[in-house]
Design brief:
The structure holds 2 protein chains of 2 kinds. Chain A is α/β, with parallel strands linked by helices. Chain A has helices spanning about 1-10, 20-25, 50-65, 75-95, 110-125, 140-150, 170-175, 195-205, 225-230, 255-260, 295-310, 310-330, 360-365, 380-385, 400-420, and strands at about 30-35, 35, 40, 100-105, 130-135, 155-160, 180-185, 210-215, 235, 250, 270-275, 280, 335-340, 350-355, 370, 375, 390-395. The longest helix of chain A has 20 residues, at about 75-95. A 4-stranded mixed beta sheet of chain B has the order 3-2-1-4. Classes of the chains: A alpha/beta, B alpha+beta. Chains A and B meet through helix 13 of A and helix 3 of B.
Chain lengths: ~425, ~150
């Protein structure tokens, strides 16, 4: 409660984005790595957690631990209320119409697999086409390839231009009577590109084709309104959204979810079981077989509450400032090339050197306390598109500062000294 | 605390900049590809083996300084060795990279490759250094194959 009061007090300060106070909410940001202050710029891989999330997890285990949806006892009622309360917070967070359209999953990957296997196997057939884009994370490619192999459907890919933006004219050309599903990312993890998802959805719906959006990289940075976007499915992960690992959300329009078969069978997803026939539970429980990650759901609810307490307008403008500042600073480094120069970007900078590999950059930055990602970022087709084996990727969150960007720049200069 | 200088020694930087035996080999009789699926490092190792002797060895590919230097040092070390000697060296290098020993007898059993011993202090980079070795091992065993660090 104390933390919640502090947050509401902070938000009431007119015009102030108190970065120091925000950083204090995240205990890990105070630690050192290799004797240097941690500069955490790997937020695209996973974000750090505020104390309120860590407290929510331990409070659940210390004070409320019990199974949900089944106990008549006090603790079970408390845990159920907390878990279902988190669902309601998540519904509001993405402005979904109904609580029952919020399905708890392990993460974005599971959400996409759920839709591919449940919707895909029930409603797609041989010869049908599924459209993805050239900037997808592997988790929005492989589940569809698996479905294609199972049913004889085909994958079609929207190309990207040299800045890392979708080529919408090509998308229009790919949409035909054969198209039966579209699944694209909202924000590219490897490039930071913000995809014009409203346009993507509108064009697909003109053909009567449902659209799924991978929001793993969008939810931590953009205001998400699934009704305004108009998408049929939207997925995101808790751990990239300042919440715990192992929990995420699939939003689906109830008209579609009602028609879809369950993804997994087990407890909680049934209403009546006999050996002759099983009746499935109502939404969302039909898709939530087995005891879920209760603590994770409650922790994610605490993260959402924390985010709701921030002034989102200031968050967006601070992150944009970081992106601009870092882009300018990195562009000034001799031999450094930024991959992904879309006009609409979140705080992600992917870069390469001609003569220094991303892994060597990553190791040397780590010695300076700077955590970045080095590699193909689970987006090998993006690397192939730009003709690079790997990139170094710095991804920002609202708790990062310009001073941290300065440390990054100095660390990169050390890389260049080592490699001459 | 691991020291960066242990990892990026002059010899390693030199082999990265001017890798030895960095070419394809048209008349190779053994060849294998190696991938590190975590980071996308890729290497192809070519061997010409006659009467159990490594007459020629070369490599191609893309990767970080550690993987490139390791492959380059490896080719220089293995040329002229027997298959049995190469297998023994593979074991010793593997032990050095993963266990922190430099070959058990003061570095003699891994020869010049002792320069790579600093890698074991950087666990995230061990696979970079061992990729070429897994690949040559697979080439010697199977003629053609794909090695993986996973």
């Amino acid at each position: 409660m104390k933390a919640a009061q502090e947050i509401s007090q902070r938000d009431s300060l007119p015009g102030a984005f108190d970065i120091e106070a925000i950083r204090k909410d995240f205990p890990i940001l105070a630690r050192k790595v290799h004797g240097k202050p941690l500069v955490y710029l790997d937020n695209g891989a996973t974000s750090q957690k505020p104390q309120v999330v860590i407290d929510a997890l331990s409070r659940y285990y210390a004070e409320e631990n019990s199974n949900i949806h089944r106990g008549v006892h006090y603790l079970s009622e408390r845990a159920t209320a907390a878990y279902e309360g988190a669902r309601e917070k998540l519904r509001r967070f993405i402005n979904a119409p109904k609580d029952q359209e919020i399905i708890f999953v392990r993460g974005t990957t599971e959400a996409i697999n759920l839709v591919a296997q449940s919707y895909g196997r029930a409603f797609l057939k041989a010869g049908d086409e599924i459209i993805v884009s050239a900037m997808e994370h592997h988790s929005n490619i492989v589940p569809w390839q698996m479905l294609c192999e199972q049913i004889g459907a085909h994958l079609r890919v929207i190309p990207i231009n040299h800045d890392g933006e979708l080529v919408l004219d090509e998308y229009r050309r790919l949409l035909t009577q054969r198209t039966k599903f579209v699944s694209v990312t909202h924000v590219s993890n490897a490039l930071g590109t913000i995809v014009p998802v409203k346009e993507i959805v509108k064009l697909a719906h003109e053909w009567g084709v449902p659209v799924m959006l991978d929001g793993a990289q969008a939810a931590p940075h953009l205001k998400i309104d699934v009704q305004d976007i108009g998408c049929d499915f939207y997925a995101f992960s808790g751990h990239k959204l300042f919440g715990p690992t192992g929990v995420g959300v699939l939003f689906g329009r109830s008209e579609l979810l009602e028609r879809m078969p369950p993804y997994q069978g087990g407890g909680d997803m049934i209403s009546l079981v006999t050996f002759e026939k099983t009746h499935y539970n109502v939404l969302p429980y039909k898709f939530e077989a087995g005891t879920p990650h209760i603590a994770g759901g409650i922790g994610l609810g605490a993260a959402i509450e924390y985010l709701t307490g921030l002034n989102w307008h200031q968050v967006v403008s601070h992150e944009h400032d970081l992106l601009t500042y870092a882009t300018d600073a990195l562009s000034g480094i001799m031999g450094l090339k930024i991959i992904g120069t879309a006009r609409e970007k979140t705080g992600v900078i992917s870069f390469v050197f001609d003569h220094v590999h991303a892994h060597d950059v990553g190791t040397i930055l780590d010695q300076e306390g700077v955590a970045v990602r080095a590699g193909h970022h689970c987006a090998m087709p993006v690397m192939q598109r730009f003709g690079v084996p790997a990139t170094t990727l710095a991804s920002f969150a609202f708790y990062n500062t310009r001073e941290e960007v300065d440390v990054l720049v100095r660390a990169i200069q050390r890389v260049l000294r080592v490699f001459g | 605390m691991p020291e960066l200088d242990d990892l990026y020694q002059e010899v390693i930087l030199d082999h990265n900049k001017s890798p030895r035996n960095f070419r394809t080999m048209a008349n190779a009789n053994r060849k294998a590809d190696g991938y590190n699926p975590l980071c996308g490092d890729q290497v192809t190792v070519y061997l010409k083996i006659e009467d159990g002797l490594i007459k020629d060895i070369s490599f191609q590919g893309s990767g970080c300084a550690i993987s490139k230097a390791s492959a380059s040092l490896m080719t220089a070390e293995l040329k002229g060795k027997t298959e049995a000697q190469a297998a023994e060296l593979f074991d010793n290098v593997h032990k050095m990279l993963t266990g922190g020993s430099n070959g058990g007898d003061g570095g003699k059993s891994v020869g010049k490759l002792a320069i790579l011993s600093g890698v074991c202090k950087f666990p995230a980079r061990v696979k970079c250094a061992s990729l070429a070795w897994h690949t040559v091992n697979s080439a010697m065993k199977g003629g053609e194959g794909v090695a993986s660090t996973e």
